[in-house]
Amino acid sequence: MQMRRLLPCLAVLTLATPSLAQEVKPEDDRTLNALVLARCPGADIVRVERSGSGLVEVEYLCNGELTEAGISEGKVLYEQREAKPGEQVMDRIRKKLAKDHPGWLLDEIELVTTPDTAFLKAEVMREGVELNVFFTTDGKKYKPVALLASDQWTLNDLRTVELPQLGYDLLEPDSTYELPDLLREVSGIALADDHTVLCVQDELAAVFTYDLREERITRVMRFDDIGDFEDLLLNGDRILVLRSDGRVYELDRRSGKLRKEWNADLRSLNYEGIFQDPQTGAVCVVAKEPPVAGHVDERPVEQVDAEGHSSLWRNLGATEVEQAFARELPGLARRKVLFQPSAAAIHPITGALFVLSASDRLLVTYQAGTCTVTPLPAEVFFKPEGLAFFPNGDLLISSEGDKKGVAKGSMMRFGFRPAK
């Protein structure tokens, strides 16, 4: 059996030996071995794989059975192993798959266990494409929302605190649009009109037109080969697409053809947001990471033009965000928050600058010299990457899904209801 990867943000499973995580760093092989042996005395580790997110995946043999454990910060997040459901359960699963996924072949079923639940993950395939479908252990359709809970705060946590008053209920979208698999990794959005959204996704050099009323892709405009495309901006008859290295592609909105592309002399190496200053008309790009030559606290926002010139529009400070969060929501400030901007836009009515940070799921607003931080629940926003405003102030946020299909790519609309 080939073990599959699961999400790095699964709910945390605390071991019976909690002091172990404090004694040795989770990256240490000795710690990994001790954690596995605490689960299964005599286990044989056969593979260890480390990811950039900090998740360590460990495959081991336990009494001859191959098991995979996901470990982060000295804790076991999940375990999964091959499952052999009874015939009645399999019959329910097959009937549900035949109804919801006709033409897909069932490849394998695994049992996933977390601290407070266990469920079945059925992997189905068609024409080389893999898809995961989830069921309870008795064969009923299951949506593992609990797996998406941040280890910092949950939806229930945020319902018990007073969040900043931005004019939106960010815990309850007014409308949710589940995106097709082609937009699972949606990374940036821009509004074309009241029901049409332009989208880009991480790995494909194309602009997608998505109709909110019909809930489908109506047009695809290819402009290059593969790359890491993070955001886009609609400026009159121009569509500007931002690549993560700061390269900008300009497309003609009507024909969809590439007009030009250019690089500006930018301060950082990684950019994920592009927006327009409505007062000056300047096009601005937002850095995810600090400048190459500058303070580690800075997240520069820079004006760019089609000639490759750039100038600093303003600096966003990671420490300022951290301090504002601790001041406004001390009960949630259990550790430092990570501020890495993934999108930005200026509110059409209030003029406030809204900045999303997919890391730690934060919405940061700047107005009149004040920084305000709103945490977002993972159960609603798996990976918030895109941000746009309707003319009436309604907010549209897009969220990437995960590669394994637990969370779908989505867009959520939040009605603007300013305090009176």
* CATH fold node name of the largest domain: Neuraminidase
Radius of gyration: 23 Å
Question: Going across the major beta sheet, what is the strand order?
Answer: 1-2-3-4-5-6-7
At the first level of CATH, what is the class of the largest domain? Mainly Beta
Describe the structure.
- Residues 1-26 have low confidence and may be disordered.
- Helices cover 11% and strands 42% of the residues.
- The protein has helices at residues 20-23, 29-39, 87-100, 155-159, 318-328, and strands at 44-50, 56-62, 65-72, 75-82, 105-113, 118-126, 129-135, 175-178, 186-193, 196-201, 204-211, 216-222, 229-235, 238-243, 248-252, 258-262, 271-276, 283-287, 298-304, 310-317, 341-346, 353-357, 362-367, 370-375, 383-389, 395-400, 410-414.
- The termini are far apart.
- It is mainly β.
Characteristic key phrases:
2 domains; Neuraminidase; 420 residues; globular; 5 helices; Nuclear Transport Factor 2, Chain: A; 7-stranded antiparallel beta sheet; mainly beta; 4-stranded antiparallel beta sheet; single chain
Short description:
With 420 residues, the protein is mainly beta. It has five helices and 27 strands. The strands form six sheets. Strands 1-2-3-4-5-6-7 form a seven-stranded antiparallel β-sheet. Strands 8-27-26-25 form a four-stranded antiparallel β-sheet, with no helix packed on it. A four-stranded antiparallel β-sheet has the order 9-10-11-12, with no helix packed on it.
